[in-house]
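Lab channel / #folding
Pinned by the channel admin:
"Please post every new chain as: sequence first, then the structure tokens as a reply. Keep commentary short and put observations after the output so the thread stays searchable."

First post following the new format, from NK:
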Amino acid sequence: MSKMSRLGHALYSGQVSIDFVGRKLLWYALSGVIVLVAVLGLTVKGLNLGIEFEGGVEYKVAVGQGNADLDAVQQVREAVLSSDIPNADEPTVNTSGDDSIRVTTEPLNNAESREIAALIADRTGVDVDRDISSQLIGPSWGEQIASRAIQGLVVFLVLVVLLIWGYFREWKMSVAAIVALVHDVLITVGVYALSGFEVTPATVTGVLTILGFSLYDTVVVFDKVRENTHELGRTHKTYAEAANLAVNQTLVRSINTSIVALLPVGALLYAGIFLIGSGALKDLALALFVGMAAGAYSSIFIATPLLVQLKEREPGVKAGDARAVKHRSRRDVDPFANVPAFSEDMPIHDDPGAAPGDAAGVGPGGRVRRTGGSTALDVREAEDAEDADGSDDVGDDNGRTRAVPTAASGRLTAGERTVPARTMSDTSSAGRPQPTRRPRSQRGKQ
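Reply from TO:
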């Protein structure tokens, strides 16, 4: 068994426990700092909206296989900046694969667009008609995409609330799941703002995709929480302890699932940035990578601790937690409270009313109370010794006698428990009476 498998078994059985719920303030503070940085990036630096959202002119310059490098990008940038056109003073120039360069500017008229294309052709030495293509994109298309994306996001969140409430019958789980989703979206959008990556329709697609991944991870943990908290009275755990056990039980699964999902997305991100250059692949991969990582984090460190915090305010949960604490304190006082009464080697609880040094006492009805760590098996051995002597009394260390019940006397008292008295029969180890074999001289002739 590997170390990860042993760790998963220990976490699932409760032998090893990480206190995720008890340290919720630490996770809240960490997430608060990350979200604050993301919001500051959005407000101070803002998003680098693509041409689809702001409108403008897009140029594709074919420079030949393997010629789309940093030097070519710099040449194209200088060519555009050499013009006196106001809307072309801040162009966005980057590679698109290894054979072309992509240039975007603010909206231009036809004459300005032809002038920019001629300057690029002169600087790079390409044919202006054959190797340079331009396209005017209006901002209305991007606005339409953004509007539909927002509508889809609102509908998705409403459906999430209804579905989680209908499945778990618990609206607090819906609230915790929505908070985790908002947390993931803010972090993803903040990374785009801080990194300066261009926001394109592929970015919007990636953001909407990560909502499903984050929700799936959260629902898996919540399902385990519901299973562990179904019979709290029987397990004698508080709601927080049962929920924390659920997070530990799904921890290895969450880590494995996240790693398996992030590896191919990371490969796409690497290919989009370093091999292909700018394009929809890079924008989609970045949103997926950041969103999946944030979703795996929020399902463990945010959603479940927040759910516990909301549930602990309910009167029923408060009463159940109080009973669990009371049972735990009673168990600590009596270490054998959970030992079955029929156990052969069960230590019988000391009589709290017996004086120090008393080896035994007689309870009501002639029943024996043993002290000093005696067991039910000890009582039965004393009965067997009494039967061998033909005596009904057993002496104690002080010379007094006490009645020891026989098989007919019923049950033996051990504190608040009773131990069934059992007679010892002369049988074999199989527990069945054995036939008596007569001598050969006494057998009749056949």
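NK: The chain has two domains: 3-48+142-326, 56-137.
TO: also worth noting, The longest helix spans residues 239-276.
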